[in-house]
Amino acid sequence: MLPILLAVCMGALTLLLFVVWRVRTDGTWALWWHDNYLERLRDFTSGKSRPMRILQYVQNTAVQGDANSVISAVDSYCANVEWAMNVGDKKGEILDAVVLDVRPRWVLELGTYCGYSTMRIARLLPPGARLITLEMNHHYAQVAKQILGHAGLDSQVDLLVGASFCSHSSAEEEV
Ligand SMILES: C[S@@+](CC[C@H](N)C(=O)[O-])C[C@H]1O[C@@H](n2cnc3c(N)ncnc32)[C@H](O)[C@@H]1O
């Protein structure tokens, strides 16, 4: 009996080590691990979704009305606590450079999620310019609205809830 138990334990430990190694060395495995296990575990233990946890962190740590502070808070949360699908600080700098270079009067963003890239764009828009951002997930849109409000950017941004593709209804609602 003992040799069988030992063999099972060794097998389980080897499998665990293999998974840990793959998660640490392969992006696909890391995404799978984060989305299927860690996120569900955190949802269960916190009683909140990931976007809600990001919002809560922003509300607790970022300066109200200061977009850069809110962006830094989201970056800090996503670097130190849990991954999220924001464009992030590195690609965000490229986005900033494009907005500063083009100085658009109108911007259309497809896919708001929690409003991270929306904030990056909106804070750099020239006076009078507007950003329309479209998000098909109602929950994400509600969170983004609060994050944009905390950043003081809601007056420059029209956040629409709906999908970029049109099936039968073309009417989108504004949050
Ligand atoms: C990668 S996330 C966007 C991240 C965000 N731009 C940022 O950097 O903070 C993609 C988002 O697009 C939304 N989405 C995907 N397909 C969409 C569609 N056809 N119409 C509107 N939103 C869509 C998803 O719900 C998700 O929130």
From TrEMBL:
Assigned EC number: 2.1.1.6
Keywords, alphabetical: Catecholamine metabolism, Methyltransferase, Neurotransmitter degradation, S-adenosyl-L-methionine, Transferase
GO biological process assignments: catecholamine catabolic process; developmental process; dopamine metabolic process; methylation
This protein's record includes keyword S-adenosyl-L-methionine: yes
Pfam families, alphabetized: Methyltransf_3
Tree of life domain: Eukaryota
Keyword field contains Methyltransferase: yes
Record-linked SUPFAM superfamilies: S-adenosyl-L-methionine-dependent methyltransferases
InterPro entries in alphabetical order: SAM-dependent_MTases_sf (IPR029063), SAM_O-MeTrfase (IPR002935)
Gene Ontology molecular functions: catechol O-methyltransferase activity
First-tier enzyme category under EC: transferase
Family designation: Belongs to the class I-like SAM-binding methyltransferase superfamily. Cation-dependent O-methyltransferase family.
Official protein name in the record: catechol O-methyltransferase
Source organism of the structure: Xenopus laevis
Gene name of the record: MGC84460
